[in-house]
């Protein structure tokens, strides 16, 4: 029986032999074709196999929360990956953006808050990092919660040269939490938003106490 207290996988990166890597598409994103083999649990090596890897880079998501007035701000924008979504391809999401070379994840969080919500200053709380789709993509998502006064921040945002058309909506916290937990009518159905809101549900009292201590 394996040691249940140790959740680390048996193998590490050294157990993978990348024989070749070729860029087969280079556009807004990249697609790589890899030929590789890896160690097997039963011993020895697998046969050589080909895998396609979607190369997207790392991203940052920021949940906007007003602990004083119990409000959440979310972006609403067109998403091509949601074209076949029953309710349509305009999605409610946390503020988000890609990490550019030389940027820290905190830099990206503050840049995107300014571009997508017009917020210049706020307190950031790190939530977690995770791999959205490790079966075929190398992206890592870093999540934050930003606390700010959201009573007058609704509006239209985004960079025209990046074809961004973003509507920032400010909603009551309980309405948003209910929507995120309603699997029958998923108004909020993307991983970054759901994970962030679940974290907020667990940490809202701590955030409220932090705000009270600062006053």
From TrEMBL:
It catalyses: ADP-D-ribose + H2O = D-ribose 5-phosphate + AMP + 2 H(+). This is ADP-ribose pyrophosphatase. Its cofactor is Mg(2+). Belongs to the Nudix hydrolase family. NudF subfamily. InterPro entries: NDP_pyrophosphatase, NUDIX_hydrolase-like_dom_sf, NUDIX_hydrolase_CS, NUDIX_hydrolase_dom. Acts on ADP-mannose and ADP-glucose as well as ADP-ribose. Prevents glycogen biosynthesis. The reaction catalyzed by this enzyme is a limiting step of the gluconeogenic process. Residues 55-192 form the Nudix hydrolase domain. Keywords: Hydrolase, Magnesium, Metal-binding.
């Amino acid at each position: 029986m394996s040691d249940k207290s140790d959740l680390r996988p048996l193998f590490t990166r050294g157990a993978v032999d990348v024989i070749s890597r070729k860029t087969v598409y280079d556009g807004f994103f990249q697609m790589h074709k890899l030929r590789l083999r890896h160690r097997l649990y039963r011993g020895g090596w697998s046969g050589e196999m080909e895998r396609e890897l979607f190369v997207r880079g790392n991203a940052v998501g920021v949940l906007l929360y007003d602990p004083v007035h119990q409000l959440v701000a979310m972006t609403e924008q067109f998403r091509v990956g949601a074209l076949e979504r029953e309710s349509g391809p305009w999605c409610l999401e946390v503020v988000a953006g890609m990490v550019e070379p030389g940027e820290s994840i905190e830099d990206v969080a503050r840049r995107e808050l300014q571009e997508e919500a017009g917020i210049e200053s706020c307190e950031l709380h790190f939530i977690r990092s995770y791999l959205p789709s490790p079966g075929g993509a190398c992206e890592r998502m870093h999540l934050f919660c930003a606390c700010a006064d959201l009573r007058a921040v609704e509006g239209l945002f985004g960079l025209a040269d990046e074809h961004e058309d973003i509507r920032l909506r400010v909603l009551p916290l309980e309405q948003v939490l209910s929507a995120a937990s309603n699997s029958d009518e998923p108004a909020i159905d993307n991983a970054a938003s759901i994970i962030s809101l679940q974290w907020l549900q667990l940490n809202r009292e701590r955030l409220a106490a932090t705000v009270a201590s600062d006053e």
